[in-house]
Amino acid sequence: MLKVAVVGASGYTGIELLRILHCHPEVAVACVTSERSAGKTVAEIFPSVRDCYTQVLEHLEPVRVADKADFIFTALPHQAAMEVVPTFMKLGKKVVD
Question: Does residue 69 surpass a pLDDT of 90?
């Protein structure tokens, strides 16, 4: 099972990615982040996935996210990913933005 993180999970791209990942039999979403909605569950923000995700959205702390996931998706606003992707890569993680 591949453990993945979705950084910026509370935006449109993030929730669509979570919907796709939920259907993948070899993926487990291990971490979800959102600066704006940290502390809330994914289901509180998007009731349509309440049966799929119970995780609490976390603040983005790159080292902590990297500890939880093998593979990281970023769904951040334009150019914001460039602030964190280098850290993920230095920690040996594969990243898709």
Answer: yes
